Amino acid sequence: MSRLHDIPIVVVSGEKYQTVQGTVAIKDGIKLAKQVSERLPKPAWLRLSNQVTPAYTQIKERVKQHSLATVCEEAKCPNIAECWSHGTATIMLMGAVCTRACRFCAVDTGNPHGWLDNNEPDNTARTVALMGLDYVVLTSVNRDDLPDGGAAHYARTIRAIKEQCPKTKVEALTPDFQGVQRDVAVLLDSGVDVFAQNVETVLRLTHHVRDNRAGYQQTLNVLKFAKQYRNNIITKTSIMLGLGESETEVLQTMDDLRAQDVDVLTLGQYLQPTGNHLPVERYVPPEEFTKWRLIGLEKGFFEVASGPLVRSSYRADRIFKRDNLGLDD
Q1: Going by C-beta distance under 8 Å and a sequence separation of 6 or more, which residues neighbour residue 82?
Q2: Strand ranges (DSSP E) for 34-95?
């Protein structure tokens, strides 16, 4: 997608749609882009105050010192101050350039041409040790330029953490590895404690929200395989709300996830990162997120973290420790 100019242009499936002042590009009844001036005003419950504390500053310095990329920074997470101030962070592996172009994500898109930092696994493990983390989330960009999508690199990193910090629990929020089960198995064999792969949105909106190489059923298949391959692993996924999904579609997505024995679900408000990305169709009030949490628990999820500012790895340590899902032993 191009940068916004006087007339922003959005490219979808090889076709161009132009928006002009006061109008919105539409394909199959779904809005694709808006002028910056047309964005919905953020409600009060989405306004954050900065919490710059010594712990936040310490983590920021260590991330820079060890040349690590964090999804907290790259994806412009609204919770960065809170999470870092509580001594928890999500580390993004394999660089900050993604081979896919999902229409909700602020991470840069390009082709890394097979580049990997071979020192990253050890650097990550040392950083986790220096931070004294009990729980760490590893995530990454999609690396379709690599034969295994980066699965072996994930596995090396997790093993390095386990060697240096044997008591640290590791969650991997991964790409879908193009649905290749042998690559997913490589990661699962590493000793990872929690396996997460995000479905992101409901079935109808998947094509418009996610890159065409991703897929609703592909994510379900990956989550199902993970549970079948290691039945003791905790599986996790996330849904963004506010993209135009209906209540019926959210309920169906929950049922589809439970059919794959997914254990943990997070739901949060989609926030448009730039004018080039999909617009927010609706700001979901906090009481509705509370309702979704209760429904999810009734459907059998071990835990549902649901709130306007909840993200996939938002205070993951607190969620799991609070409910004692076997990670405090």
Answers
A1: 51, 315
A2: 69-70, 90-93
